[in-house]
Amino acid sequence: MELLVSCKNAVKNFGREKALKNVSFEIKKGQIVGLLGENGSGKTSLLNCIAGLSHLSSGEVSINGVSVQDYKVKRELAYMPVVNLFNPKWTIKNAVESFSGLFPDFDIKKNADMLKILNISENTEFRSMSSGTLAKAKLAFTLSRNVKLYLLDEPFANIDLVAREEIYSLILREFNPETTIILSTHFINEIEMLLDRVMLMKEGRITADINVEEYKEKNDKSIVEFYREIMKTEVS
Ligand SMILES: Nc1ncnc2c1ncn2[C@@H]1O[C@H](COP(=O)(O)OP(=O)(O)OP(=O)(O)O)[C@@H](O)[C@H]1O
């Protein structure tokens, strides 16, 4: 069955704070989708709910019709959170052993290739990594799982320009039409060539949802211009 991520009337409240206000969309396989939006607009909350890590206050997120709260569905997607989930005392080698044991879909060869491209050796300890190296390692481990859905929360934060460009190429190289990537980022001016679709969040809602190629053909505008325009309009 083809992958279909479906989010229906998702509401997420943290006490009185309304992080998601009735968010609905569908995503079919074979797309790299960018979640854009200012700080606090709800991107991480949405990714956490798609990953099944956070319970919605109401509404539902499902993959191929099965709720993401189902253990099996959760295991079949790869999520890269902003925080570091690796044990600081581990080396890369320890992490490879751990991922291989935890995830039957973990591809050791793919991981080794990616770490080589990113210039990270197997004896490097997580506690000794710079924030940029840690970000690269997190991404390499996430993308080394052979799954159909990757959720990447700010995968380019703390990474220098040259390494970001390496990572954009890596994502494009690893991406295939059977997979889907949903990522959040603030590097709007750089990721245009990476994205098929942009969902723009503002104050807990999706205020715009576009196919990048179609939008650019029709409007002769960059995604940065599109972003600025939408951010100027008020949310009712
Ligand atoms: N655990 C929490 N408890 C209370 N409020 C929260 C919690 N997590 C998020 N929020 C609030 O929910 C709203 C959305 O936050 P979220 O982290 O999803 O935004 P974001 O778009 O990812 O922001 P950023 O770009 O800064 O990472 C914010 O107002 C935030 O303060």
UniProtKB/TrEMBL annotation:
Top-rank taxon: Bacteria
Protein name, entry field: ABC transporter related protein
GO molecular function: ATP binding; ATP hydrolysis activity
Domain called ABC transporter: residue spans: 5-228
Species, as recorded: Sebaldella termitidis (strain ATCC 33386 / NCTC 11300)
Record key words, sorted: ATP-binding, Nucleotide-binding
